[in-house]
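Title: Comparing notes on inverse folding

I've been comparing how different people in this forum approach sequence design from structure. To keep things fair, I'm posting one structure and asking everyone to reply with a full sequence. Here's the target:
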């Protein structure tokens, strides 16, 4: 018995991007009431001046909806043609059900395949790899990929290793069929031996026993070392696998974890002076999975980056996991 196999478009590309930033502006000064630190230390060691946290009436659903609605409108795609929705998040309030089916329902994407992925700060590139494969294999025609995070809710304000780092937000893209390739091969992987580098401070059993909501813990130095060594090589591999030389690149959007990590990646990749580099960390902090699409939208909105340009994106975080690819900007 020979089974039929689905067949899809020759290539896929990102058609549009949208994002949502929450309303509360949290400057470094605000955090000094909880941690022994200084505005100078935070700014110099990370590049962060302020971050946005959710306020009254805002949550992961409202942020994700705003980003997704904007991406769908900008794509011009009939929502009825979006047959899959992937949500990347580590801060959704429910272990089950996933956030994606609810967002699909709220967005009117009836009967779309809908599921969440948990790949932390690498989640956008993980989801993009899946969306690209789904379109090329005919498993979906159009895919909505949302990355939404409210890390402020799992941040331990008294932990001077993490309290200043994270911000909330959401980004979304519509991915669709294309005659030319707009999404290069994904370079991805994991190192579970470093599960303790970024972790949930208590598993659910321990949290219930202690009567405490679990928070996010991090061994900053271990992650920093991994990101400036291993991830630099992975970023170079993304260029190689896409057949791109550093001088062919227009835009670099690394995960916004620390400006010093970005600087090291830039030096390693030997990117030319003219390459536009995302530095949204200054005002948005680290938005986990949402960082890359939020930065992409910001660079396009400001005119620093332009539609059709070639960009390298790479994310890395809890797992440890990483993923990156070269893309054509929507
Ligand atoms: O998105 C997920 C991926 N996450 C990341 O990529 C994060 C990667 N890690 C980092 O970005 C950095 O490790 C941090 C920004 C988290 C920390 O910076 P660091 O340069 O690694 O600081 P450190 O832990 O090595 O500490 C250096 C010094 C120490 O003082 P001494 O021993 O040199 O006198 C710390 O006590 O800075 C001190 N310190 C602080 N001082 C003021 C540590 N935290 C703070 C603080 N404020 N919040």
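Reply #1:
Here's my take.
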């Amino acid at each position: 018995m020979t089974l039929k196999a689905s067949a899809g478009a020759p290539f896929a590309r990102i058609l549009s991007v949208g994002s949502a930033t929450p309303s509360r502006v949290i400057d470094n000064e605000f955090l000094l009431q909880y941690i022994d630190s200084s505005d100078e230390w935070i700014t110099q060691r990370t590049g962060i001046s302020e971050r946005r946290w959710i306020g009254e009436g805002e949550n992961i659903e409202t942020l994700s909806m705003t980003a997704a609605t904007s991406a769908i409108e900008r794509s011009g795609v009939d929502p009825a043609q979006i047959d899959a929705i992937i949500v990347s998040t580590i801060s959704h309030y429910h272990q089950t059900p996933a956030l994606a089916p609810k967002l699909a329902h709220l967005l009117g994407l009836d009967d779309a395949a809908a599921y969440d992925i948990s790949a932390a700060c690498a989640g956008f590139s993980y989801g993009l790899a899946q969306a690209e494969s789904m379109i090329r294999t005919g498993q979906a025609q159009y895919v909505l990929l949302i990355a939404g995070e409210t890390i402020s809710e799992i941040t331990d304000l008294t932990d001077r290793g993490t309290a200043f780092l994270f911000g909330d937000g959401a980004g979304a893209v519509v991915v669709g069929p294309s005659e030319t390739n707009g999404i290069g091969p994904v370079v991805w992987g994991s190192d579970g031996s470093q599960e303790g580098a970024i972790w949930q401070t208590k598993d659910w059993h321990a949290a219930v026993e202690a009567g405490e909501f679990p928070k996010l813990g991090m061994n900053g130095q271990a992650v920093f070392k991994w990101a400036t060594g291993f991830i630099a090589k992975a970023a170079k591999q993304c260029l190689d696998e896409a057949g791109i030389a550093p001088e062919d690149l227009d835009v670099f959007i690394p995960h916004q974890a620390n400006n010093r990590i970005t600087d090291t990646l830039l030096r390693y990749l030997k990117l030319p002076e003219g390459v536009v580099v995302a530095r949204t960390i200054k005002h948005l902090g680290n938005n986990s999975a949402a960082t890359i699409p939020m930065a992409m939208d910001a660079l396009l909105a400001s005119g620093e980056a332009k539609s059709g340009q070639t960009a390298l994106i790479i994310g890395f975080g809890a797992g440890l996991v990483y993923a990156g690819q070269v893309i054509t900007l929507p």
